[in-house]
Specification:
Length: about 500
């Protein structure tokens, strides 16, 4: 075990803890400050926080593992689809910020529930977010276990590594809340970009240079540099499916949704969206290149092994202390996502469950305390899921989180912009969409019904049809007119 690498890693973790305690000194003991930093996050910090939060362990380990199997075609469906997502970020984020500022909302279900004065819709929306975010939370501990195991050359087990990462996140999130979350994201975002650029440089140099590496890949494994790629995965239907999937599901990640509340002003959201697409295009390319090149050095990996390809490639061509620095970038990716997920899940269970159903008169200080307790509970739950997971990061997320959350997109857009949408239409849309998803997931519905697309296409189509049909039928039941735009008063 290289002491230089471990020392750098310890320094990195200490920096995160230091930021957490620094922000704690500036914090107020209220739920609004703890969960959304008193709505004070400016454009630069908001941009890096959105980017770092969305770039998770999946970005480092899952991207590289998927590219190992499917090739460079994976870059197109990830970078372009996620780049387009910036548009949906702005469409949703601008209205969420406006309504949050006006009415004091902190959680996603809070806004949706109050839009229709419906506790049933609020709880359905919350249940979907919680159920489909927990697997994503677990992947961060999985990535942390992988990274620490590689960093220590196997001396620290995967399981213990997952525990260490979870413990550090717990400390600074519990202490500093959203403000610590956002400011650690700045450090983590910069570290991610720098380390990934360095990793590509090191690995390509070890393979004889960037041009040589790609020439070898094209000559020895031509399927990995063309579409449909390895395993013939990326057909036109799959390209369309992934573009739609990322565009619809990512704004529904509760950890990103909550960032819209935390913005200082609408300008902060607009600038963040403009900057988001270019950084996505650059950063997503880097692990994909390393993953595809991995076939040249480590052919034949199966099961969960491809998720290790990025640290394996860096370790192959660099001294072990360099690997320690590279893995700190991976830690930055996974920790910046996990801390945000813990915080927003805690905020929803505090505001939408504890305060709504158990103690309506709970003070802001009491919400603050309950929120911290729930952060601990959720962290332990995510860790437990990580220690029992048997799927790869790519399979975990594409099979569970992404499609499940995409179902919420039609309801969210309609609630923000469509005056005739009703709570019954929203509930029907979510239930119909999720039941359709369950049917495909457990193969209760014929696979041929997707016509070569991912299940997200028919699932969201069902959700949209249910939303429109039921809303038109029940449009006599009207929503709170305060929560729609000037031209959209009324609404179900």
């Amino acid at each position: 075990m290289n002491t230089v690498a471990v020392a750098f890693f310890v320094l990195y973790l200490s920096s995160l803890l230091g930021i957490g305690f620094f922000t704690w000194r500036r914090s107020r003991k209220t739920s609004e400050d703890y969960f959304v930093a008193s709505r004070s996050i400016g454009p630069f910090v908001l941009f890096l926080s959105l980017a770092a939060t969305n770039f998770s362990a999946f970005t480092f380990f899952g991207f590289a593992g998927a590219a190992y199997k499917f090739g460079l075609a994976y870059y197109g469906i990830m970078a372009f689809g996620t780049g387009f997502m910036a548009i949906s970020f702005y469409i949703i984020g601008r209205r969420v910020w406006q309504l949050g500022k006006k009415h004091g909302y902190i959680t996603p279900p809070e806004l949706i529930g109050e839009r229709f004065k419906s506790d049933s819709l609020r709880m359905v929306f919350l249940a979907v977010m919680v159920v489909f975010t927990l697997p994503y939370l677990a992947t961060q501990a999985i990535g942390g276990g992988i990274a620490i195991n590689q960093l220590t050359e196997g001396e620290v087990s995967y399981e213990l590594g997952a525990v260490i990462v979870t413990a550090v996140i717990l400390v600074y999130v519990t202490v500093g809340g959203m403000r610590a979350d956002a400011y650690t994201d700045v450090l983590q975002g910069v570290l991610m970009l720098v380390t990934m650029l360095a990793a590509v440089g090191i690995v390509s140099a070890g393979l004889g240079g960037f041009t040589e590496a790609n020439s070898r890949l094209a000559e020895e494994l031509p399927a990995l540099v063309t579409r449909p790629g390895g395993l013939d995965l990326f057909t036109p239907q799959m390209w369309i499916s992934y573009m739609v999937l990322w565009t619809l599901c990512d704004p529904m990640f509760p950890q990103l949704f909550s960032r819209f509340y935390a913005a200082r002003d609408e300008r902060s959201i607009r600038i963040s969206m403009v900057m988001y697409a270019p950084i996505t295009a650059l950063l997503f390319l880097l692990p994909v290149l390393i993953g595809a090149w991995g076939q040249l050095e480590f052919p034949g990996l199966t099961g969960k092994d491809p998720d290790n390809i990025l640290p394996m490639m860096v370790d192959q061509f660099a001294p072990s202390w360099i690997l320690g620095i590279m893995l700190s970038g991976a830690f930055a990716a996974l920790m910046s996502t996990a801390d945000s997920q813990l915080l927003v899940l805690s905020s929803m269970l505090t505001r939408d469950v504890y305060k709504r159903w158990f103690k309506k008169c709970a003070s802001a200080r009491e919400e603050f305390v309950v929120g911290k307790i729930l952060v601990v509970v959720l962290a332990l739950l995510g860790l437990g899921l990580a220690l029992t997971s048997v799927e790869t990061l790519f399979e975990t997320l594409t099979k569970t989180t992404f499609t499940g959350l995409a179902v919420l997109f039609p309801t969210t857009v309609a609630a923000l912009y469509w005056k005739r949408v009703t709570k019954w239409g929203c509930i029907g849309s979510i239930v119909a969409g999720e039941l359709t998803y369950v049917g495909f997931y457990y193969e209760l519905l014929p696979g041929g019904w997707t016509f070569g697309f991912l299940p997200v296409i028919p699932v969201v189509a069902v959700a949209v049809v249910a939303l429109i049909g039921i809303s038109l039928i029940t449009s006599g039941i009207r929503a709170d007119p305060r929560l729609v735009g000037p031209s959209n008063h009324g609404g179900g």
